[in-house]
# Entry
Amino acid sequence: MKKAAFILLSAIATSGFTQEYFQQEVNYKIDVTLNDKDNTLSAYEEFEYINNSTTALDKIYIHLWPNAYKNTETALAHQLIDMNNTSLEYASEEDRGYIDSLAFQVDGKDVKWEYDAEHIDIAVIHLNGVLKPGDKITVSTPFKVKIPSGDISRLGHVGESF
# Structure
């Protein structure tokens, strides 16, 4: 009986500290062409974003992974230095990577967006309205990627291997 009472009390004591779990849902469609001569991608992306949180959103954050290879000030560059890896620090401009030519739209309408103030590999998309819990939007953009050298990290090319 004492064991059952302890388990019950433990469950009651911890139930006040639990937070309802959610995960945003994102469904992607990407049309992409590889140019293996200049190591670039030309693409158009569209994704459905479903707000599964309990909070209304007025902006969303998008990780722009290729910009992690753009210069020596990114989080990736600092992480590599901390690991005594200088491949990005001393990489030529040709060996570095980036993403550009972004023009975000939400549900077919232009939106204001910007790079995060501290991290150029994160875009902040300011929604034209509020995205309520349970609602969804469609975000789209063209983009181009300069694929970095595979000598820097796992995103990259080595010769004609991508």
